[in-house]
């Protein structure tokens, strides 16, 4: 669906859905674009784990997820973060449906490295026909970053990974990764545009924490056909755009 736009709301971004944000969503809908939303909420998960005296451990931007941590992650993402977002969309008159992997097995995944991360996965398959049916009915799917294995085991998935895989599978024209910074900073400069090669090279040293998987998955999404990936803190700004740059000879 080349007229679809995927928007990922990071934990902080999802809490600050402004009038301007919804104006942009309405604008896209009026243009006939199909909008898909993936939400994060890692900061809320960490807060709840701390309340429950469960150790929070993040390695390479991914939460090490024990069985106990997985239960809390599901509870917070599907029980708190998601309904809070769907409700804000509903208040703006936008038809939405909140989804997780168990709805029509919409996101299938596999373990990243069970010995290091526990129950953490990466999305390997997206139920495209299911999403297309919703999009054709003008519904905005709002999706939690979790997957089920082929054997129905729950996996905690980084939300940028989830958004990028969905954008790739839907062949989305654009992907917005909304976060708490205006883009990617290199030395003291915010970068406007990066080619695939430039973005892939950044991984070594300049990026830390959650920015590591964000850029890694963004690069993969562009390689697999998503035209532009924007890392930004505002849906009206393109922030840092990662895109395919053709080399002319
Ligand atoms: N080179 C970089 N440029 C911009 N932000 C960076 C960079 N390296 C690391 N970061 C960090 O990445 C964070 C955003 O990633 P993350 O915490 O995963 O956000 P989100 O929850 O929105 O996905 C920023 O708050 C910033 O501290
Ligand atoms: C495996 C893994 O790290 N999963 C993430 C899922 C939520 C997320 O990615 O939220 P943000 O986009 O707000 O960071 C986590 O548990 O925090």
TrEMBL record:
Pfam families noted in UniProt: AA_kinase (PF00696)
Gene Ontology BP terms: L-arginine biosynthetic process via ornithine
Entry keyword Metal-binding: no
Presence of keyword Repressor: no
Binding, substrate: 41-42, 63, 156
Catalytic function, reaction form: N-acetyl-L-glutamate + ATP = N-acetyl-L-glutamyl 5-phosphate + ADP
Domain of life, per lineage: Bacteria
UniProt cross-references to InterPro entries, sorted A to Z: AceGlu_kinase-like_sf, AcgluKinase_fam, ArgB, Asp/Glu/Uridylate_kinase
Aspartate/glutamate/uridylate kinase domain boundaries: 5-233
Pathway(s) this gene product operates in, as recorded in its UniProt entry: Amino-acid biosynthesis; L-arginine biosynthesis; N(2)-acetyl-L-ornithine from L-glutamate: step 2/4
Keywords, in A-Z order: Amino-acid biosynthesis, Arginine biosynthesis, ATP-binding, Cytoplasm, Kinase, Nucleotide-binding, Transferase
Subcellular location: Cytoplasm
SUPFAM superfamilies, sorted: Carbamate kinase-like
One cellular-component annotation, GO: cytoplasm
Similarity comment text for this entry: Belongs to the acetylglutamate kinase family. ArgB subfamily.
Protein task: Catalyzes the ATP-dependent phosphorylation of N-acetyl-L-glutamate.
Name of this protein: Acetylglutamate kinase
Source species: Vagococcus elongatus
Gene name in the database record: argB
